[in-house]
Amino acid sequence: MKYAYSFFTLVETRCLASLLASLLASLLLLHFGTVQADSLFEAKQAFQQGHYEKAFSQWQAVLDSTPNPNRRLEALLAIARIHRRLGVYNQAERLIQTALSLVEQSGNAGYHALLLNEFSKLSLSQGKKGYQAAIESGKQAVSIARNANVPLVLIEVLNHWGNLLTVEYDYNGALETFREALTQLDRYKNSLQIQSQLAKKPEEVQSEIETLRGKILINQVQTLFLKEAELLQFQLGEQAFKASMRALQSALQSAEHQWTDSYKQVFGLLTISQLGIAQK
């Protein structure tokens, strides 16, 4: 009986130790996940603010530490964007191609669309020699994004596609695309899915939504200005300057009801830039 008691005590102790070990592992995993989530938010903020060195080191740390395929894709995409912004095009393309090979294995349609979209931006950054590749990969990105059922991916891809249409002088097509992107963004913001995320992480989610909205609105205003500017090409001097002022004011009024304060400031700088061009 004594041995039986000892045996069951030993089993009970081992079970308790196993339970405690599992609990500790779960707590560590939860802590690591929370720390990493905070780190990702900081990395995204650093990128948006132009602190590329800080963003790079944080994304590289994610890439070095996680086996999660989606996190690795996110990190590769983010680092490729940093290289593109810094003009290191060869390195950006290498990272995109690496990530695309991983996407083929995982079948993640959302990241597939984002990577093609980034390749399109990269190609466009290289001028005329990359223009055709930018159009082709942009079209592919839109097609995949429409079937991926990931709203923010579709919105980001549509925003870039609108820019490509603007480059092609298809101003009406571009404006229609920007309107679709804004409609999709409003629909996403009002969805039940995003409402629960807003309740948990209001600052992070709201920042992501408003940053994306600001980008779309700035592109929309630029396109409206360019569309109006086509009508001004035969006007000279003071006439052109005044007409440019009217075009910019008209463009601003079309978007102002959706504009945040930070993007009003950006538009102010944009206005000065465009007026400088109009006087040349």
Any overview of this molecule?
The protein has 280 residues and is an all-alpha fold. It has a domain at 49-147: Tetratricopeptide repeat domain (Serine Threonine Protein Phosphatase 5, Tetratricopeptide repeat). It contains twelve helices and no strands. Helix 1 packs antiparallel against helix 2 (52-65), helix 5 packs parallel to helix 7 and helix 11 (237-255) runs antiparallel to helix 12 (261-279). The radius of gyration is 25 Å and the shape is globular.
Which key terms come to mind for this protein?
280 residues, mainly alpha, 12 helices
Helices, strands, pairings?
Blueprint: H1 2-48, H2 52-65, H3 69-85, H4 89-106, H5 109-125, H6 131-148, H7 151-167, H8 171-189, H9 192-200, H10 202-229, H11 237-255, H12 261-279
